[in-house]
Specification:
alpha/beta, 7 helices, Rossmann fold, four-stranded mixed sheet, 24% strand, single chain, 32% helix
Length: 204
């Protein structure tokens, strides 16, 4: 399975729809939803930030997607694989290790300022399990790709999707079904960490 849209900026980001000026609003709302945000200048800084996060979590198995579309990410995924840390990028390996992986590293297409959400193209099976099953989800996104609200996001999605699976991710998984007590990580990741890269295009 492949993404329905291979190049969101080229195919869907019309003039005025995406504006880096909405970043502050996105950051405030994302943090209010318990997302953790790290903004970096380039992929070199992103790799250092990722390395620090991996030291904190000490994972043994990592699922990682997005490297096929982004050479910089592919290189990062190759380098973070060390003795004791396995990084699975092949879709069949991801399917095999989906239940045991500690961390899922994925990508988002753009951010929504109004809700602090990430819009993710999860058309492929491996993208879905990588972002939904591990307890920790680390997401790379272009810091300049921010839209004002959900209406604009839907307008963009409508230009590229005739079928598929697209999701809005707002903070870590949560539920308040039991006695109205909010719990994180019940149905998915209990930590959402966003690495927003300013110079994202140079990684392609």
């Amino acid at each position: 399975m492949e993404k329905v849209c291979r190049d969101w900026p080229k195919e869907a980001f019309g003039e005025g729809l995406v504006d880096a000026g909405y970043w502050q609003s996105f950051e405030e709302n994302a943090k209010a939803a318990a997302a953790e945000i790290y903004r970096v200048k380039n992929f070199a800084e992103a790799e250092k930030q990722l390395a620090n996060l991996l030291k904190e979590f000490a994972p043994k198995e990592i699922l990682a997607v997005g490297g096929e579309e982004n050479p910089a990410l592919k290189g990062i995924y190759e380098r973070i694989a060390q003795p004791g840390i396995e990084v699975f990028t092949d879709k069949f390996d991801i399917a095999e290790h989906k239940a045991s992986a500690d961390i899922g590293i994925s990508t988002a297409e753009f951010c929504i300022a109004e809700t602090g959400s990430l819009v993710v193209d999860n058309y492929s099976y491996e993208a879905r399990v990588t972002s939904m099953l591990p307890f920790v989800n680390i997401v790379f996104v272009n810091a300049k790709y921010v839209v004002e609200n959900v209406s604009v996001a839907c307008k963009i999605i409508g230009q590229v999707f005739t079928k598929g699976y697209c999701g809005f991710v707002t903070g870590p998984s949560r539920t308040a079904d039991i006695e109205r007590v909010l719990s994180l990580g019940v149905h998915g990741p209990n930590r959402l960490l966003i690495i927003a890269v300013d110079d994202f295009e140079r990684g392609r």
